[in-house]
């Protein structure tokens, strides 16, 4: 995981998912990192987006695209390459 600056204003956490980590886990971990709190203290991801649909969109895509949604007060962007970006 690496931190960077988006628009020079708010931090973003960029985290990639892969065989060792699902896209859902990557999203929750990235948001937890931005908030500086444990993943278990976050609201259910399912309150913001259907986790199964998100996984299907990312894992089954053969194009360059992204899914953007709001979760726990943050804008989350998940690219089809598995990169998760969270605006702080």
TrEMBL record:
Segments forming domain Halobacterial output: 21-87
InterPro entries tied to this protein: HalOD1
Superkingdom of this protein's organism: Archaea
Record's protein name: Halobacterial output domain-containing protein
Taxonomic lineage: Archaea, Methanobacteriati, Methanobacteriota, Stenosarchaea group, Halobacteria
